[in-house]
């Protein structure tokens, strides 16, 4: 029986991607997450969500630039990991930080744009996670599915804005993620332009 | 040369080619799996390292820090709330001169030299002077004050400071009648304070108080905590502690105190005026634009507690602000 190509890739990304979570749990259990554990977990899960979201958006550009096809094989998993860490990030905020007190949470989401954009980014990821199965692609039809999954771009932009607004002063770190995202968008834009030119130049049927 | 052939193993002992190839493939795949998982996990670990690194090894050795003269009695202003552990007070700091993460100061502040150290007191005073820190310590006996500290970021601590009232020092230099404010300046030396190499804030850090706030008996110039000389990350050798205001008013590593007629500029107010006012009184009713100030997390605890007006010192200081709109003067 022919084994699927790169059978190790998805399991390896899953294990590597969960490693920081496992490490965090171990550190937390040993009291090594510093004096403000909730803040440490919030920062870490938020960062991981953003990193995975950008990684999922990097798959197509990697193929365009280097011709690699393996990133496409892990895109779904990477996207789901982004969603998983985003959910953990929100749960850490809602349950651990705010003690599930609805009023302050709603006030934060409605009154503070910094929290609002983060929350909207999470909400946008929900339909993407729900339609991540092959069956959903078939059911929706690929063009519609693809259109829906462009919401990931919006979520990533909001995620970077959330990060920029969170820091008190120095925006270097969020700016790095913003620059990566801009680069990924630029590659897609160049490709889209090229494609349009190609179709325009193609001889039309008489 | 022998012509003898090696004995042929029975065919039952030969691994079938198909299996042999699969085993090789399996080992290759296992290697790639481990390698990839390691690279992914390691990369993510490095990205988040600064935030989750254990800080045990950065807690100052309390046995090495010089002890201060034992405090005389307890202060009427002391809180009897549980003190935040020494390890937390000394590894969870905002001191941008040594880095932006909470654990950066504990890691980086050892490059600061706190002896010799002089403090200049000038401006609207009759006796301007520059005084050595050890001389200053001889002038004023230190006392212990167990104060709540509330950061503008909505976390708080309870810290046993050692220090003396700022009012004593101000009295000694004889303010003129024009002295309405007190301005403070931190050391400016990017070699000793590497964070100053980057223009994150407008260095050096400056802060200020109105003179009645400055001479209030609660206002402390701290030189130690937990009975020990102030660790560098906490603002050695001399820092301001104003317990009813957000922590950023408590300027660290002071080199200059100037009495002025005009309200002095203050660093965080310059950086982001709509978020950090000159007064910065702890006020649960006035939110920070990005988060509520109604509650806070005491460092080491999990649930939040309500924030008290003036951080619980309203009885002592609320009268300083009668007639002022604290939403305007946040």
Automatic annotation (TrEMBL), chain A:
Record-annotated Ferric oxidoreductase domain positions: 46-160
For whether the record's keyword set contains RNA-binding, the answer is no
Per UniProt, subcellular location reads as: Cell membrane; Membrane
Q: Recall the GO molecular function terms of this protein's record.
A: electron transfer activity; FMN binding; heme binding; metal ion binding; oxidoreductase activity, acting on diphenols and related substances as donors
Cofactor(s) needed for function: heme b; FMN
Q: How is the cofactor bound?
A: Binds 1 heme b (iron(II)-protoporphyrin IX) group per subunit.
Name the InterPro entries on file. Fe3_Rdtase_TM_dom, MsrQ-like
**Is Cell membrane among this UniProt entry's keywords?**
yes
Keywords for this entry? Cell membrane, Electron transport, Flavoprotein, FMN, Heme, Iron, Membrane, Metal-binding, Transmembrane, Transmembrane helix, Transport
> Which parts pass through the membrane?
47-65, 77-95, 115-136, 148-165, 171-190
Source domain of life: Bacteria
Q: Show the Pfam families listed in the entry.
A: Ferric_reduct (PF01794)
Q: Give an example GO biological process.
A: protein repair
Cellular component GO terms, alphabetical: plasma membrane
Q: In what way does this protein cross or attach to the membrane?
A: Multi-pass membrane protein
Stated role: Part of the MsrPQ system that repairs oxidized cell envelope proteins containing methionine sulfoxide residues (Met-O), using respiratory chain electrons. Thus protects these proteins from oxidative-stress damage caused by reactive species of oxygen and chlorine. MsrPQ is essential for the maintenance of envelope integrity under bleach stress, rescuing a wide series of structurally unrelated cell envelope proteins from methionine oxidation. MsrQ provides electrons for reduction to the reductase catalytic subunit MsrP, using the quinone pool of the respiratory chain.
Family listed: Belongs to the MsrQ family.
Record's subunit section: Heterodimer of a catalytic subunit (MsrP) and a heme-binding subunit (MsrQ).
Its protein name is Protein-methionine-sulfoxide reductase heme-binding subunit MsrQ
* Species per Swiss-Prot/TrEMBL record: Hyalangium minutum
Q: What is the lineage of its organism?
A: Bacteria, Pseudomonadati, Myxococcota, Myxococcia, Myxococcales
TrEMBL record, chain B:
Q: Which reaction does it catalyse?
A: L-methionyl-[protein] + a quinone + H2O = L-methionyl-(R)-S-oxide-[protein] + a quinol; L-methionyl-[protein] + a quinone + H2O = L-methionyl-(S)-S-oxide-[protein] + a quinol
Instruction: Check the record and name the SUPFAM superfamilies matching this protein.
Output: Oxidoreductase molybdopterin-binding domain
Show where the Oxidoreductase molybdopterin-binding domain sits: 113-268
Q: Which GO terms describe its molecular function?
A: metal ion binding; molybdopterin cofactor binding; oxidoreductase activity, acting on a sulfur group of donors, quinone or similar compound as acceptor
Required cofactor names: Mo-molybdopterin
Q: Which InterPro entries match?
A: MsrP, OxRdtase_Mopterin-bd_dom, OxRdtase_Mopterin-bd_sf
Q: Ribosomal protein among the record's keywords?
A: no
UniProt keywords, alphabetically = Membrane, Metal-binding, Molybdenum, Oxidoreductase, Signal, Transmembrane, Transmembrane helix
Cofactor descriptive note: Binds 1 Mo-molybdopterin (Mo-MPT) cofactor per subunit.
Q: Does the keyword Transmembrane apply?
A: yes
Name one process (GO BP) from the record. Answer: protein repair
Q: What is its EC number?
A: 1.8.5.-
The record, for NCBIfam families, names: PRK05363.1 (NF003767)
- Please explain the role this protein plays, according to its UniProt record: Part of the MsrPQ system that repairs oxidized cell envelope proteins containing methionine sulfoxide residues (Met-O), using respiratory chain electrons. Thus protects these proteins from oxidative-stress damage caused by reactive species of oxygen and chlorine. MsrPQ is essential for the maintenance of envelope integrity under bleach stress, rescuing a wide series of structurally unrelated cell envelope proteins from methionine oxidation. The catalytic subunit MsrP is non-stereospecific, being able to reduce both (R-) and (S-) diastereoisomers of methionine sulfoxide.
| HAMAP family, A to Z | MsrP (MF_01206)
Per UniProt, subunit arrangement is: Heterodimer of a catalytic subunit (MsrP) and a heme-binding subunit (MsrQ).
The UniProt entry's sequence similarity note says: Belongs to the MsrP family.
Name of the protein in question: Protein-methionine-sulfoxide reductase catalytic subunit MsrP
Protein's organism: Hyalangium minutum
Taxonomic path:
Bacteria, Pseudomonadati, Myxococcota, Myxococcia, Myxococcales
